[in-house]
Amino acid sequence: MSDVLFMLGTRPVTVAEILLAIGALALVLLLALAIGLWRSGRTRALEADEQTMRADELETRISELVRSQTEMTGRIQSFAEVLGGRQAELARTVTERLDSVSHRLGEGMTNATRATTESLGQLHERLAVVDAAQSRLAELSSHLVTLKDVLANKQSRGAFGQGRMEAIVADGLPKDAFAFQHTLSNGKRPDCVVFLPGDQRPLVIDAKFPLESITAFREAKSDAELRVSAQRLRQDISKHVADIAERYFLPGETQDIALMFVPSESLYAEIHENFDDLMQKAFRARVMLVSPSLLMLSIQVLQVIVKDARMYEQTEIIRSEVGKLMHDIGRLRDRAFNLQKHFGQASEDIEQVLISADKLSKRGARIEALEFEEGPAAGGKRPEIPAPLGLKLGAAE
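Above: the chain sequence. Below: its structure as tokens.
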């Protein structure tokens, strides 16, 4: 046992040590094997327990599932019964609703048919109105064509502008305050003159207007046409302004200002907006361009001036009448004062009469109180005493 088998470095290794090491190793292996068997047995036992528990749990769950399935089956049956009842009730309700909807639909269709019939009747009436309006539009179109022809002709256009001007003037002023086609000393006849109060010089109004140039200016499509038409418009209006100043400005006979009537508000606005230099030139020439609204305003101002002048002319007559009225009022006051004096004198005389009557009444009472002997001439009768004057007056009253 103590024999040395080999040398491990400097230390000898014997058989006993080897056997001891082999035994220790075998013991360790046995322990490891025993521990492994114990652990595997324990694991198997745990697995068996777990399987048993799982089986029990599975059986419990299966029983619960079966019970739940049974309950679900009962519930499904009850739900099916309820659903059947609800379905029957729903079918009945749907049938009733369908009947009601059918009835309402029938009534709605009837009402819609009646409303459609009424609407068609109204539509026919409106179509008749539209036809009448269309005929009127056709008539208006013919009138517009006629108006266009009138405006295209110089003489007709002049008559149209003069007609508008005459209507405005005649509507705002009295007849003796204006005159149409009045002849001046130079033989010229302006379209209208207005006589201002307190001044023998009339105000001249000219109703002619060059329409071709403003029409060309409006219808210009290119810049070149616009410049040409603008230059033509300036020349035409400047010439017309110069003609008015030359023909109608007569010193001592006419006013030193004249009005040139533009028969359209749009034309006046076009000139005022795009040709301010032309307006300034006419102003310096003492020729005022006026639109229909401005002419109306001027006529209203002149109407107020004429009214004030006429009132001033009647002032002397009014003052004379007021003086006569004051004289009559003074005479009436004197007569009333005299009447008051007469009434005062009569009242004083009546008071004096009443005082005398009271005195007579008192004296009569004293006389009546005296005792006289009865005389033979009296015949035993008491002489009568006349009643006092105041008593007679009272009895008479």
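The beta strands are 4-8, 11-14, 178-180, 192-195, 202-206, 258-261, 287-290.
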